[in-house]
Automatic annotation (TrEMBL):
Pfam families noted in UniProt: Acyl_transf_3, SGNH
Name assigned to this protein: Acyltransferase
Source domain of life: Bacteria
Residues covered by the Acyltransferase domain: 6-325
Keyword field: Membrane, Transmembrane, Transmembrane helix
Transmembrane segments: 7-25, 31-51, 72-93, 135-154, 161-180, 186-207, 219-236, 242-260, 281-298, 310-328, 340-358
Length: 608
């Protein structure tokens, strides 16, 4: 197949769409379609190459796969090694496993499956993961395994028809799946949902081998209109759209039209020196831009980069990409397969050694886990298991604590007070979503659905323990969002026996940033300011709730001197992230509120 400079220019455009979106999604909310542009180009080029070799009877599966590996893997492996090493020093100890797991999934081109599970509840978010962008390369390599089988084994006269049918069936399946499951995340990272985008490129390669041709001016107008559609897609499609699926056909078909239109002004522009050079760098630019952005976000716990950080990202991305292109990509293109095998084995061994040695080498920088992660009461968190805390010898033991991770956070608080005031309590808690009947799945976002599903597995177990106890305590980050959570709380209150009491907590305040990342120590080092995120609406709703239902009581955890220096207390870290008390913070809050809480709790405890 003849090399086309204009395709390199289109690659450059695709990268800049993605780059702008990754820098700040509010600048170009649909810039992620640049990845879909890459997919169409890959489908178009690979199909053209395979069919050309098939027609000449020179196609070899062995050669095809090795050429793809030589093109993609050397720079890719170098990036994974460099990002893993850098991340070992930037990431907190609590998140190192996330880093290593992501690197491991990436190196075998399975990271799309890992990231389809969504964000970790407590750990680093996906937009802080330096390997998040490898999902697209994983899908591309997976598709490369399938494409030759389709093109070689299906007879030529049926091939276009089969490809069109696959596009229709898989696009329909993707769209229906997103609608039924109310989840974009798993679909977004799915090979099945992305195959139609590659196949659009494949179909255009077969159907328009002689290109679309009007006059030069007609070609220019046609290409301009398709380029406009592509740009408008980047402007108006957003992360909240049901994408991919049917909507993905708009930018992908527009891209395919750019590839097969004959002589025109816009293709001439894309074929000029600067766009072509940036297109040649586009793979390395794509590899390096995201880890730089994600590490900055992780370190400062801020999504939005400052102007200085944007400039720094642009410069470092270009330098890293130039180095990778000049000394890694070009070097291995000229080497034989044996050199690639040796390099790959050496890199794999190095990664394994780093997985064991780097965490030990960086141990001096690690903060004690009790300050950076939930460590208390985990055996009864997300598990069908009950733990008992407080004074375990007390007869005041028919007390149950339930709720989400905010209930998990106050287990040390109640344990401290219980041990000193003659009561014990059992507990079962969940991440993110209350394990109560009536909470609705459709009220949660695609990233929250997995927490809903996990909580639902504990609903019956929680209900059984509610029936066994006389006093039920419940804490949650919010009882009013979503509304079905509040409705489930009302149902719980309405189902209480005459001898049962329900205590709802107005939870402790949250802050706008993760203090562990910002401070990098458990002793106060930073001068950064933190904004308190109040929960007044939640408190007002709970006050009304407690006044409405008999045997329901409200206690406010957010009051007290301890929160005046949030997120520190006596210059010691009391939060393990932006919204959860650590064990030190919970016990410190217990010490401050002990008398006040017991004056509230003792009459309830004494009632029969």
């Amino acid at each position: 197949m003849q090399f086309r400079n204009d395709i390199q220019g289109i690659r450059a455009l695709a990268f800049f769409l993605v780059f702008i979106f990754h820098i700040n999604y509010t600048w170009l909310q649909g810039g992620f379609i640049g990845v879909d542009v890459f997919f169409v180009i890959s489908g178009y080029l690979m199909t053209s190459i395979i069919i050309d070799q098939k027609d000449k009877n020179i196609f070899s599966f062995y050669d095809f796969y090795w050429k793809r590996l030589k093109r993609i893997f050397p720079a890719y492996l170098f990036l994974i090694i460099a990002a893993t090493l850098a991340g070992s020093f930037i990431y907190l100890a609590r998140d190192i496993w996330t880093l290593q797991k992501s690197a491991g999934a990436s190196i075998v081109f399975l990271s799309n499956l890992l990231f389809s599970r969504g964000d970790s509840y407590f750990g680093a978010a996906l937009n802080e993961n330096p390997f998040l962008h490898t999902w697209s390369l994983a899908i591309e390599m997976q598709f490369y395994l399938l494409l030759p089988l389709l093109l070689i084994w299906v007879k030529r006269k049926y091939l276009s028809t089969v490809i069109v049918l696959l596009i229709i069936v898989l696009t329909t399946y993707t769209s229906i799946s997103m609608f039924i499951d109310n989840s974009n995340t798993s679909t977004y990272f799915s090979l099945v949902s992305r195959i139609p985008e590659f196949l659009i490129g494949s179909f255009y390669s077969l159907a328009f081998k002689n290109k679309i041709n009007f006059s030069r001016s007609g070609n220019t107008i046609f290409v301009f209109l398709n380029l406009l559609v592509l740009i408008l897609s980047a402007v108006f499609i957003s992360k909240d759209s049901f994408f991919p699926g049917v909507i993905a056909l708009i930018p992908t078909i527009a891209t395919a039209n750019l590839l097969v239109t004959g002589n025109n002004f816009i293709s001439d522009f894309f074929a000029k020196k600067i766009p072509v050079y940036l297109g040649e760098l586009s793979y390395s630019l794509y590899l390096w831009h995201w880890p730089i952005i994600s590490f900055i976000r992780y370190y400062h716990d801020e999504y939005f980069l400052s102007p200085g950080e944007v400039v720094f990202t642009c410069i470092l991305t270009f330098i890293s990409a130039w180095f990778s292109y000049r000394f890694i990509e070009n070097f291995f293109r000229k080497k034989n397969n044996t050199t690639l095998i040796r390099y790959s084995i050496s890199g794999g061994v190095l990664l394994i050694c780093m997985a064991f040695l780097v965490p030990k080498a960086t141990a001096v920088y690690q903060i004690p886990e009790a300050y950076t992660s939930p460590t208390f009461g985990l055996l009864s968190h997300n598990e069908k298991n009950i733990e008992v805390f407080g004074d375990k010898t007390s007869k005041n033991n028919r007390i149950l604590l339930i709720g989400d991770s905010h209930a998990l956070s106050i287990k040390p608080y109640l344990d401290y007070i219980g041990k000193r005031n003659d009561f014990s309590f059992s507990t079962v808690t969940t991440d993110g979503v209350l394990a109560l009947k009536g909470v609705k799945r459709e009220d949660y976002t695609s990233n929250e659905v997995k927490f809903y599903d996990a909580a639902q597995q504990l609903v019956d177990f929680t209900q059984q323990n509610i029936q066994k106890n006389r006093i039920i305590m419940i804490n949650s980050s919010s009882f009013i969002e979503p509304m079905s959570a509040y409705e489930s709380l009302e149902k719980l209150a309405g189902s209480l026996r005459p001898d049962q009491k329900l205590i709802v907590f107005n939870t402790f305040p949250s802050i706008n940033r993760d203090p562990v990342k910002v401070n990098r120590d458990y002793i106060k080092r930073t001068s950064a300011s933190f904004k308190i995120i109040g929960k007044e609406k939640n408190k007002l709703a709970l006050e009304k709730f407690a006044a409405t239902y008999k045997n329901v009581y409200l206690y406010d955890l957010s009051k007290g001197e301890i929160f005046k220096s949030i997120p520190f207390y006596k210059d010691t870290l009391m939060y393990y992230n932006a919204s959860h008390l650590n064990t030190y913070g919970a016990v410190s809050l217990g010490k401050e509120q002990e008398k006040d809480f017991m004056s509230f709790f003792s009459p309830i405890l004494a009632e029969k």
